[in-house]
Structure formats: C-alpha cells, structure tokens
Amino acid sequence: MKHWKIAGTLAAAVLLLGGCGIEQKESQMQDGTYTAQMTDYSFGWKEFVTITVKNGEIVTTEYNAENPSGFIKSWDNVYMNNMKTKMGTYPNEYTRYYASFLNGQTEVPEIDTLTGATNSGSNFRLLSQAVVEKAILGDSTIALVEIPEHE
C-alpha cells in the first residue's frame, strides 16, 4: 500500500511538471491568417504581406502590392517588362523570393536583399516584423506600417 501512495505521488508530480512544458511560449505565433500593409502608396502601389500560421509555423506567405483600384502589382505585365529591363528583376519574381524567407519559419529570419528590389526588400522586412507580431498576439486586424523615410 505504501508503494501505491509513493507511485501515486510521483505520477501526480510528473503530470504537474510535465504540463508546464505544454504551455505555449509567449513568442509563439497563434494559428490563423494575418496581414500587414504599408500605410501609404509608394510609386502608385501599397505593399502588403499576408501569412497563414499553423501549429506555430508560417505555412503560406503572400507578398505583393496593389494600386488604388485593387489591381495586383505582380499581375501588371507592362510594369513587369519595364522593371525587368531596367532593374533585372520584376514583382512576380522578387515577391516570391522575399516570401520564401518566411515559409516554414516560427519567427522573422534574416532576409537577404535582392538586387533591383532593395526598397521592396526593406519594406518586406518591416512588414514581416509587423505581421509576425500580430501572429504572436493572435490579432487578425491589419497591421499598418509607415513607409520609412529614405535619406
């Protein structure tokens, strides 16, 4: 009988202590879909990042921009052709490049800048930080990010 009491006490202690490991870390992202967007248009486009989080990990990322009518930048073939000629990259390429940094992550990783899309890379970093902060809070309202002043 004495062994059963000891075993019961140990089992209760293990359950209590083991349950502590189940608690969600404060910095873990909550499952859901979250968006951050720039507050203003830049060169006619307002950039945004939308992520979907599952089991605390980013499973999808969309990075793009829209004009005032809602047209998506990476769909603009004229813009694409002009930018590709002048900058060596274009929205459909660099938005996928930047978005790939977030997929599979549990926090904002180091993001390498793509030549020809450095302003977008800077904005993507800001948007990524804001959207991950929303995901940590479980707050699905859109995060608004100010366009940084370039010196």
Care to give the gist of this entry?
This protein is 40% helix and 19% strand.
What would your notes on this structure say?
It is a single chain. The chain is α+β, with helices and mostly antiparallel strands. It has helices spanning 2-20, 77-87, 91-100, 118-137; strands spanning 32-38, 46-54, 57-66, 143-145. The protein has a four-stranded mixed β-sheet with strand order 3-2-1-4. The radius of gyration is 22 Å and the shape is globular.
Can you lay out the helices and strands and say which pair or pack?
Layout: H1 2-20, E1 32-38, E2 46-54, E3 57-66, H2 77-87, H3 91-100, H4 118-137, E4 143-145
Please write the string of helix (H) and strand (E) elements.
Answer: HEEEHHHE
Strand content: 15-25%
Radius of gyration equals 22 Å
Q: Helical segment tally?
A: 4
Strand order of the largest sheet: 3-2-1-4
Globally, the shape reads: globular
Mean pLDDT: 86
Task: Identify the notable features of this structure and list them briefly.
151 residues, alpha+beta, four-stranded mixed sheet, 4 strands
